[in-house]
Structure formats: structure tokens, C-alpha cells
Design a protein that fits this description.
The complex is a heterodimer of chains A (374) and B (540).
Chain A lengths: L1 H32 L4 H12 L2 H26 L7 H18 L4 H30 L3 H19 L29 E5 L2 E5 L2 H18 L1 H11 L1 H6 L4 H18 L2 H8 L11 H11 L4 H23 L5 H49 L1
Antiparallel strand pairs in A: 1-2
Helix pairs in contact in A: 1-14, 2-13, 3-7, 3-10, 3-12, 3-13, 4-5, 4-6, 4-10, 4-12, 5-6, 5-10, 7-8, 12-13, 12-14, 13-14
Chain B lengths: L1 E4 L6 H8 L10 E3 L2 E3 L4 H6 L2 E4 L11 H6 L3 H4 L3 H14 L14 H14 L4 E5 L7 H16 L3 E5 L3 H7 L2 E6 L2 E6 L6 H9 L17 E10 L9 E9 L3 E5 L6 H9 L6 E6 L2 E2 L5 H6 L2 E4 L3 H5 L6 H6 L9 E2 L2 E2 L1 H14 L16 H14 L4 E5 L7 H16 L3 E5 L3 H7 L2 E6 L2 E6 L6 H8 L5 E3 L30 H4 L34
Parallel strand pairs in B: 1-6, 1-7, 4-5, 5-6, 11-18, 11-19, 14-17, 17-18, 20-21
Antiparallel strand pairs in B: 2-3, 7-8, 9-10, 9-12, 12-13, 15-16, 19-20
Helix pairs in contact in B: 14-15, 15-16
Classes of the chains: A mainly alpha (374), B alpha/beta (540).
Chain lengths: 374, 540
């Protein structure tokens, strides 16, 4: 038994390691094909990330990515493909910023109001897809991807200066009304060459979300139902899980977490919503990271860090005469390798376990036979 | 025609997989026509003329018989007229009666099986392996299958036949190999042994004699179903039509029927997975018609599903999580909204122990267990919550003799304590041996009832195909009472269930032999010892 458990752990680690190694090998090939030295490229990336200011930037971006990936993972655990995390996060950030900018309240209350607004807006946006699925059988893939486009259009409409948009002095980018200082989520100051940078304090909220996600899935009856419905819908129905309700709940949860994605940026840095600070695509990155981290809160944390590292080290490549797209190519290769590696390792693991179980039972039987004979 | 018999986990399926090239042997050789061969993949086996008819049919429902047959063998005779001509030729030669343009989804189980056989012959097989071919057939269909197989044999083909049903093996095989714990324990000729001796060879010890049981049927109704009706297809045929019955505490009501006659729908309605269009379901005193599945199951409805892989297990989850499945809100699995993995694990260990689930531990996935052990886990799980009503659909399908007897024992023990059981099974011996009352389901209606003490498989078989209805009476030669048995169709089945007391006779073991009748009850539990489950991979 011990052996099987240990093997399970090794297999669980084998897949991502294998995927990253394969992806590195393939991207080395591509760099080499472009006539440059791949070793040098990796060295530059590592060297750059050794700087304290890069590390702060990596952590901050990883925080955002982590929340995005957890939002996606909740859907994945229930076999729901919430592609709409991207739209949910942007519309939630925008409306939360607008609500937060319109009021003045004491600090904690102000922040709570903004966070609750963000969670609710995200949940409502994904809930639309959830209701469409449970009541009309519309595939959530189709509805959420369309809701992304709707969110983009709605944001553009609401951000006009006659509605929620304001034009800050000395800028040509419309933003929402800037938040009062009471909504400044304190960060962790880091001294970098005499200048102070801040790691988002929201990183703790992200960690808490990860822990909450783990407990919800593995330690509650609700989480069990959710996992059962994801693992085998037919078995879940027979055992009394109301799968429609689970679809709706997990869409709402996923959207709620998606609403938080923009919050580190909003409360820790920009203090107002502007299209440039809340780029489209973070939700899709979340999908890749959730895959990479195997929908597991800890795995997602590593995935988010790796992704943020690749993101942040790309500009330095550019600076040194390499194509910065190398990092993007690597990200793509990692995702493909991960998907393939997981499936291979999963099948191998299952087969291997079956063999082991058979072997151990056979051994036990042989022992018994010997005992009887003796 | 060579039969291979042995318990589940004895190594039959592994042996078949090796012969069909799905698995490689560690040692030993295979010779075909005296020539030593090594088979690496199923295509090697097919090229050598070996064909396999799987227990679970591998047909695409939405394609025609012709399309299913040529699928993957397009190079033989193309996909059109040449293929059709070749199919007809084979079909006529062996009397298979194939209609190439019928859709597979419109075919019955027996027809599908013939399509599988045709598929294999079409690929040029000279050696046919059939894995439990009779498990899903009614007696009349079994006879037809055997006629087909004899036809094949007379044309010089070799048939390897795996079965649990020893009577069939004895009647059809030319030679029998018994395997146990991965080795051959005996090679016998059917003329030299009887079913009982064969069963003893299989389990490796003497079987206890069947015992008479007391009736435990009481007056208290546990499940009362009134005039259930459900849907209708485009031909206006209803899936369920006026189904009414009552099961009392301590009673086993058996439902016989060819699969696809409304049994699945009945179960769905009873567990609440599908609402009935009309009619009521009363559990104990409470009308549960509007209750959702979870409330019913927590209210005391245990469920052993017919397809354990789809409805009873999370195959890739560990055993202890499977122990929680279906009972997530109940002790010891949870406290309020919180799961209690520690208690669930401990209780899983208890179930593994008490129900003799053969596994090295509770952290392995359900998929790693053999079919019989998976089923024992499910039975253990359902019984652990002391159900008031147990819905058991084919509880011993694909389960070996030892586990079968154990499962029967557990159902019987719970029945003594007042459990009401709805037993749906294709194994007529099981139905006859276990039930207090038997009803026959045909096209969504309960068309006949029978007393398990006197009814025979043949009589049930004719009611299952719609040939007989009403109360089935046994026609003993010289018996004065020869009425009934063929009452006109549409005659209402005599209502309710057998009166209390009349079950006493029903409990006498039918004369089916200790090996086949569910009355085989090794009270010392499995007296087979943990057998080498060399093929735990089977039945997934």
C-alpha cells in the first residue's frame, strides 16, 4: 500500500516536470533554429528574474493569475468549461471600481463593499451562462465566450464620459472615478535599490481563496457532490446529486472568484478602472494555468508563478537581441506538453495500479496456500 | 467447443486477453495449428484468425449492422455491395439471420450478439472466443445461440466459451478446462462430471448443501407503487404503463423480463432520477412521489445499480470515496456540511473486512478491483446504512460463485430483519431462488405473476417474450391443476403480492442444483480463500 501511495506522488510530480522539460527542449530547438544560442536565452531569463524588482513583479502578476486559474478550476472539477472568466473579471472590476469610486466610507467597509460588488457582478455574469445551461441546455462554452464579447461592449458603453468614465488630468485614457485612499489595500513594501516597491497585500487573500477552494472540495459534502458530478454524472445522479443545481452553483462560484481577479490591481495599484490596466486575456491564461496545475490549489500556485516568470522575463530577451516571442512560444508548448503528459501519466498510473493490486492479491493468495499446506 | 470455467478473479479474462493479444504473457507459449505464435496486439490475433466476442458489446448504436461490420475492416470487401454479399453469405452459412441494413439501436440483445459474431467471422476468424455470451439472454435465446455455435463447430471452427453457468457449459461444451488462482486445476469431459462436481472444482472445496428457508414476509407494506405511467415513444408505446405492486417488510419481489422492457425506467422512477407522468410511490407510510433522489436515499432506499460502472462507482476515485458516494450526508461520512474522511476511511476498512472485498487497501481506485469485488463494496455500502427498501438490479451479474453466494446471503439476512427488496434480474435461477413473489415485465407492463416455488425458467421465459400472461401455473405431468399459464394477454395480473405465509413454499430451493441456485449459502463466508486475482483488470 505504501508503495502505491509513494508511486502516486511520483507520478503526480512526473507529469508537470516532464511537460516543462519537453517544452524547454522544444523551445531550445526553436531558438537554435533561429540561429541563436538557447542556453544564453535561458541564462538571461534566469538572471533577470534574480533581481528583486522582477521578483516583486512576478509575485504580483502570479497573484492575479492564481485567482484566474482557481476560478477556472472550480468549473473544471465539475466538467464545466468556463471560458467566460475573462469577461466576468473585467466587468466585475469595472463595476466594482465605479461603485467604490462613488462612495466614501471607512477603510475596511469601503474595501468590503468593493469586493462584494466584484464577487456579485462576476457571479451574475457567469450565472447567466449557468441558468442558460440548466434551463435551456445551452453549452456553457458557447454562452460564456459570447458573454465575453458582451462584457467588452458593455464596458465600452459604460466607460463613456457621460456615464461612468472620467478623464484624469494629463491623460487621454478614460478611467472610472478614482478610489479614495480608504480603499487602498496595504502592500508589503520591498526595498529595491533605494526605491520602494510593493508586493500586493492581496496575495494573502489569494492564498486564502486557494485554501478555501481546497477545503470546499475535499472536506465538505458540497465539494464531494461537486467532484462526484464531475467524475461521473450518471453515478452522481443515481446517488442523489442534483446535477443541475451543482452546475448553477459551480458557475456562480467560478464567476464569484473571477470577480476577484482584478482586485489586486484595483486596490493595490491603479485605484481606478482603465482598459489598459485590466487587459483582456487574463481569463484565458487562467485556463492554461489551471491545466498546468491540474486543478489543484497547490499545483496552480506553481503554475501561476511559472507563467508570471515567463511573462516578466520576456522583455529582457527582447532587450538582448532575442525574439521576446520565445517566452510566448514556451508558454504554448508547456500547455500542449502538459495536456499530453497528464493523459499519458494518468493512463499509465491507472494501468500500473491495477497490475500492482493484482500482484499483491496474488501474493497474499500464495501465502495463504503455503500456510494451509504447512 | 471448449469451455473455460472459473471464478471471477481466477484468471479467465486475463487468459482471454492474452489469447486476443491485448496482454503479453510473462512466460509460456501459444500455438495455433501447431505453429508457435506471439500475439502483440489484437490485430495480430485477428490476422491469425482469432476473434473475440466481448461480454459488453462493442457496437455503435447509431450505425447499421453493415456499417458496424465493415468498421475497421474496410479493406476486406469494401464497404458496399461486396461487403453486403459477404455478410449474407456468412449469415446464411451459419444461420445467423442478419439484416445488414437494420440500425443497431433497433436490435435486441440476442440480435446484437449475432452481429458481434458476424463481425468476428467477417474478419476471417477460425477461432472464436465468447466471453460470458449467455449472461444477457433469456433461455430461448440461449438455445438459439447454442444452435448457432453448433453450426460454427460443424463447419470446422473452434469455439472457446467462457461461462459461469455450469449447466450450459455441460450441455454445450466438448471439453472443459477449470481454472482457479491463475492455473489449470482440471480438464474434464462433460460426460464425466455433474454441475456440482464442476462447481467444487471451481471454488476448490465442497459446497454446502442448499437449505430451506423460513418465509419472513410480513403484513406491513414497505413500498406501494400505484399505477405508474411514463412517457411514450413515437409509436405510442409507453415506457411504463399502469405498473402497480406492493412489497412488504421482509419480502423479496422479483421482476423478470427481457432487458429494455421498462425495468430501467421503473428503477429511475423509484429512486427519483426521473419523475413519473402518473401514479404514486409510497415508502412506508409516506408518499415520496415528489421527493428528490437524495431525500429518498437518505430516507432508506438502498440501490444496487445494474451498471455499477456508470451508476454505482467513481472508477478513478479511491475506495473510501466510493464508500461515501450516495450517502454523503449520512454518518459516518459527514458531520453537518463537513466530510469526515477519517471516519469514512475507518468504515471503509470495516466494509472491506466484513464483506470480503479483496483489495490491498482502501486508497486504490475502484477501477483496480475485479467486478465481483466492486460489487461487494457496493453491497456493503448500501447495507451499512440499513435501508428499508433495497432496489437490486442484477446484483450478481458478472460476479463469481463465491461472491454471488455471499451477496445472496447478505440480501437474505437483511430480509430476515425486515428489509423489503425489489430484485430485478436476468438470471432466472437467481430470481426463482431469492424471490418470494415474481412478476414478469413486458413492454412496460407487469403482465404475469408466478410463484417461485413452482415456476420454471422456461415458463418465465415465455412470459418474458410476451407469449404467456396472467398467473403462471406449473404443469406437472398428472397434475390435476392445469389451468392458467396461458391466460389471454391483457388479463390483469392478480393484484398485490402473495399473501403472507404463501412464501414458505417459495423459499424451498428450486431444483436447479447447488451450483446454479442462489440457495447455495456457504455460511462460513467465502470458503474459497483469497484467490489469486490475477485478472483484477477484468470487468471494468
Amino acid at each position: 500500500m505504501k508503495r502505491i501511495d509513494k508511486e502516486k506522488l511520483v507520478l503526480a510530480l512526473a507529469a508537470p516536470v516532464l511537460a516543462v522539460v519537453v517544452a524547454m527542449a522544444l523551445s531550445s530547438g526553436i531558438v537554435a533554429a533561429s540561429g541563436k544560442d538557447p542556453i544564453e536565452a535561458f541564462r538571461l531569463m534566469l538572471e533577470y528574474s534574480a533581481n528583486a524588482d522582477t521578483q516583486v513583479l512576478i509575485l504580483n502578476r502570479a497573484t492575479t493569475y492564481y485567482l484566474a486559474a482557481v476560478a477556472v478550476a472550480i468549473g473544471f472539477r465539475m466538467n464545466l468549461f468556463n471560458i467566460g472568466v475573462d469577461g466576468q473579471y473585467r466587468i466585475a472590476a469595472m463595476l466594482a471600481a465605479a461603485v467604490g469610486g462613488a462612495v466614501t466610507l471607512p477603510g475596511p467597509l469601503h474595501m468590503t463593499l468593493i469586493l462584494v460588488t466584484a464577487i456579485l457582478v462576476g457571479a451574475v455574469w457567469s450565472g447567466v451562462a449557468g441558468v442558460l445551461k440548466t434551463h435551456r441546455g445551452v453549452s456553457e462554452v458557447v454562452s460564456t465566450i459570447m458573454l465575453n464579447a458582451v462584457a467588452t461592449a458593455l464596458i465600452a458603453y459604460l466607460m463613456r464620459d457621460s456615464l461612468l468614465g472620467v478623464l484624469p488630468q494629463g491623460s487621454d485614457q478614460l478611467t472610472t472615478e478614482p478610489l479614495a485612499d480608504s480603499a487602498d489595500f496595504p502592500g508589503i513594501p520591498v526595498d529595491v535599490d533605494g526605491r520602494t516597491m510593493e508586493v500586493y497585500g492581496f496575495i494573502f487573500i489569494a492564498v486564502a481563496v486557494g485554501i478555501g477552494f481546497h477545503y470546499l472540495l475535499n472536506r465538505t459534502t458540497f465539494g464531494f457532490d461537486l467532484r462526484a458530478a464531475g467524475a461521473s454524472e450518471s453515478a452522481a445522479v443515481a446517488s442523489g446529486v442534483d446535477t443541475k443545481r451543482m452546475v448553477l452553483y459551480s458557475m456562480l462560484l467560478s464567476g464569484g472568484i473571477a470577480g476577484l481577479i482584478g482586485m489586486p490591481q484595483l486596490l493595490g495599484e491603479s485605484h481606478s478602472y482603465g482598459v489598459a490596466d485590466f487587459p483582456a486575456g487574463v481569463g484565458f491564461t487562467g485556463i492554461a494555468i489551471a491545466l498546468l496545475g491540474r486543478n489543484n490549489p497547490l499545483g496552480i500556485a506553481f503554475g501561476a508563478l511559472l507563467w508570471a516568470f515567463l511573462d516578466r522575463s520576456a522583455p529582457n530577451l527582447d532587450f538582448n537581441g532575442f525574439e521576446k516571442e520565445i517566452a510566448t512560444i514556451m508558454q504554448g508548448l508547456i500547455v500542449i506538453s502538459v495536456v499530453v503528459a497528464y493523459e499519458l501519466v494518468r493512463r499509465y498510473g491507472l494501468r500500473r495500479q491495477q497490475q500492482r493490486v493484482g500482484e499483491e492479491l496474488a501474493q497474499a493468495a500464495r501465502r495463504n496456500v503455503t500456510e494451509v499446506a504447512a | 467447443m471448449h469451455a473455460i470455467v472459473g471464478e471471477n478473479g481466477a484468471g479467465k479474462s486475463t487468459l482471454m486477453k492474452i489469447l486476443y493479444g491485448m496482454q503479453r504473457p510473462d512466460e509460456g507459449t501459444i500455438a495455433i495449428d501447431g505453429e508457435q505464435v506471439s500475439l502483440h496486439t489484437p490485430s495480430d490475433a485477428i490476422a491469425r484468425g482469432i476473434g473475440m466476442v466481448h461480454q459488453h458489446f462493442m457496437l455503435a448504436d447509431n450505425l447499421t449492422v453493415l456499417e458496424n461490420t465493415v468498421l475497421g475492416a474496410e479493406k476486406r470487401h469494401g464497404i458496399r455491395d461486396a461487403a453486403r454479399a459477404r455478410m449474407r453469405e456468412i449469415s446464411d452459412a451459419y444461420g445467423l439471420g442478419i439484416r445488414p441494413d437494420a440500425l443497431v439501436e433497433d436490435l435486441g440483445v440476442a440480435d446484437r450478439q449475432r452481429v458481434e459474431i458476424l463481425k468476428v467471422l467477417y474478419r476471417g476468424a477460425r477461432i472464436l472466443i465468447l466471453d460470458e455470451p449467455t449472461a444477457v439472454l433469456v433461455p430461448q435465446e440461449v438455445d438459439a445461440l447454442f444452435a448457432n455455435l453448433r453450426e460454427l463447430k460443424s463447419e470446422g471452427l473452434t469455439v472457446i466459451f467462457i461461462s459461469h453457468k455450469l449447466d450450459e457449459v455441460l450441455s454445450v461444451a466438448d471439453e472443459i478446462t477449470v481454472i482457479r488462482r491463475g492455473t489449470t486445476v482440471a480438464s474434464v469431459l462433460p460426460g464425466d462430471v455433474n454441475a456440482r462436481q464442476l462447481a467444487e472444482l471451481m471454488v476448490g472445496s465442497e459446497l454446502p448443501s442448499p437449505q430451506t428457508r423460513e418465509s419472513t414476509v410480513t403484513d406491513t407494506p414497505m413500498l406501494t407503487v400505484t399505477e405508474l405511467g411514463l412517457g411514450g415513444d413515437e409509436n405510442g408505446r409507453r415506457l411504463l404503463d399502469g405498473v402497480s405492486f406492493t412489497i412488504h417488510r421482509g419480502e423479496v419481489l422479483g421482476i423478470a423480463g427481457v432487458e429494455g422492457n421498462g425495468q430501467t425506467e421503473l428503477i429511475d422512477v423509484l429512486i427519483g432520477a426521473r419523475p413519473a407522468d402518473e401514479g404514486t410511490v409510497v415508502l412506508g407510510e409516506q408518499d415520496v412521489t415528489a421527493w428528490p433522489t437524495r431525500r429518498r436515499r437518505e430516507g432508506g432506499v438502498g440501490y444496487i445499480p445494474e451498471d455499477r460502472h456508470r451508476h454505482g462507482l467513481l472508477l478513478e476515485s479511491p475506495l473510501w470515496e466510493n464508500r461515501i458516494l450516495g450517502h454523503v450526508g449520512e454518518s459516518p461520512n459527514s458531520k453537518g456540511p463537513w466530510l469526515d474522511p477519517r471516519a469514512a476511511r475507518a468504515d471503509t476498512r470495516r466494509i472491506v473486512e466484513e464483506y470480503d472485498v479483496r483489495t490491498p487497501g482502501i486508497e486504490v481506485t475502484a477501477a483496480s478491483l475485479s467486478g465481483g469485488n466492486q460489487q461487494k463494496l457496493i453491497v456493503g455500502r448500501e447495507m451499512s446504512h440499513h435501508p428499508r427498501l433495497l432496489i437490486a438490479a442484477h446484483p450478481t451479474r458478472g460476479v463469481d460463485v463465491g461472491a454471488q453466494a455471499q451477496i445472496w446471503d447478505q440480501i437474505r439476512a437483511a430480509r430476515r430483519e425486515g428489509l423489503a427488496v425489489l430484485l430485478i434480474s436476468a438470471d432466472l435461477d437467481e430470481l426463482i431462488g431469492l424471490s418470494d413473489t415474481i412478476r414478469v415485465m413486458y413492454r412496460g407492463r407487469l403482465v404475469a405473476d408466478a410463484d417461485p416455488a413452482t415456476v420454471t425458467s422456461q415458463e418465465l421465459g415465455s412470459a418474458m417474450t410476451g407469449a404467456a400472461a396472467g398467473h403462471l401455473e406449473h404443469h406437472e405431468p398428472g397434475d390435476a391443476d392445469t389451468e392458467g399459464g396461458t391466460a389471454p394477454e391483457g388479463a390483469p395480473p392478480s393484484g398485490g403480492t402473495a399473501a403472507p405465509g404463501s412464501g414458505a413454499g417459495a423459499d424451498t430451493s428450486p431444483d436447479t442444483g447447488p451450483d446454479a441456485g442462489p440457495d447455495t449459502s456457504p455460511d462460513a463466508g467465502p470458503d474459497t480463500g483469497p484467490d489469486a486475482a490475477a485478472d483484477t483488470g477484468e470487468e471494468r
